[in-house]
């Protein structure tokens, strides 16, 4: 059984032909050209689908698509997705069907990263887990009995907007101190830059003081690996904040396995070990049993595999 997975971003459209057992058969990526409007983007998605099908003479069961934003319970409509200018409330599934002839189901991209992990990644070992995606923002998905938990309207799993400090920094949340304000890539880089400016004797200052815009979490990882105490401390503080958020997730959902993915997660043990230590410290004792934080190695492929997996679930 074969399906097509689409990962729609503001910059690129990633597409793949996926076998339900073997995984990727073919992948491709084309620019989104989001600034040219939604009709143009729908045409671009259709082009990617057409090229994959024709190149492999394939007969997919349909299209699964991940995209930013809040998706309706019937998995057809998205509301106000970020980074896609001019999109408001769009029936994406119908637009793709009109252009390709293939049935289409859509889902929030972070939810699909969780589903991809459940079928092809580290999450395959668990019936239930919480995926936390640490990228430009902080997202996530909740897997219960191998299925995405979607809430009453399809919009559950906005893990980045869990508030851990009402007086904390701003992010994309409607109030201060959401976990995204500490671990979203640009917010973590902002905090790191402010801290490094206060330590001009540190090698990180020497490297970035002329252009802190180039500072990324992976640079903090390399500094930590080299024994830079300031880099280690910045990542430790971020990891502790993640640990506080995870305490909330576990106490509410009674799910003990946390799978972490995304660019910021490349900070590895310097971020995840403090997160695990903090969570174990503040979780109520019964919730510590079988608690574990796991680093997902699929990276950005998780959402693409999850999109294809959604098609297998919904369209076969």
TrEMBL record:
Pfam families: ROK
Name used for this protein in its record: ROK family protein
Protein family membership: Belongs to the ROK (NagC/XylR) family.
InterPro entries with a match to the protein in the record: ATPase_NBD (IPR043129), ROK (IPR000600), ROK_cs (IPR049874)
PANTHER family in the record: BIFUNCTIONAL UDP-N-ACETYLGLUCOSAMINE 2-EPIMERASE_N-ACETYLMANNOSAMINE KINASE, ROK (REPRESSOR, ORF, KINASE) FAMILY
PROSITE patterns: ROK
């Amino acid at each position: 059984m074969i399906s097509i997975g689409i990962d729609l971003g503001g910059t690129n459209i990633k597409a793949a032909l996926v076998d339900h057992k073997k995984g990727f058969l073919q992948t491709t990526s084309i620019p989104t050209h989001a600034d040219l409007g939604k009709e143009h983007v729908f045409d671009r998605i259709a082009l990617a689908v057409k090229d994959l099908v024709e190149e492999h003479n394939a007969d997919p069961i349909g299209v699964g698509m991940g995209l930013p934003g809040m998706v309706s319970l019937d998995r057809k409509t998205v509301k106000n997705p970020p980074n896609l200018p001019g999109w408001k409330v769009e029936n994406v599934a119908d637009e793709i069907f009109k252009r390709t002839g293939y049935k289409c189901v859509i889902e929030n991209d972070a939810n699909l990263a969780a589903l991809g992990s459940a079928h092809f990644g580290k999450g395959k070992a668990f019936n239930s887990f919480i995926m936390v995606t640490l990228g430009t923002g902080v997202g996530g998905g909740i897997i219960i009995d191998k299925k995405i938990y979607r809430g009453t309207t399809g919009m559950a799993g906005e893990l980045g907007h869990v508030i851990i400090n009402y007086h904390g920094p701003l992010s994309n949340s409607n109030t201060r101190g959401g976990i995204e304000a500490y671990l979203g890539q640009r917010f973590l880089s902002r905090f790191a830059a402010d801290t490094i400016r206060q330590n001009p004797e540190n090698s990180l200052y020497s490297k970035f003081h002329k252009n802190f815009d180039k500072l990324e979490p992976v640079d903090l990882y390399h500094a930590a690996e080299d024994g830079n105490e300031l880099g280690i401390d910045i990542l430790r503080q971020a990891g502790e904040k993640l640990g506080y958020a995870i305490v909330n997730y576990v106490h509410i959902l009674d799910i003990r396995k946390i799978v972490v993915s995304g660019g910021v997660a490349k900070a590895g043990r310097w971020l995840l070990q403090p997160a695990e230590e903090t969570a174990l410290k503040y979780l109520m004792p019964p919730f510590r049993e079988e608690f574990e934080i796991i680093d997902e190695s699929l990276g950005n492929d998780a959402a693409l595999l999850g999109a294809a997996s959604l098609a297998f679930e919904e369209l076969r």
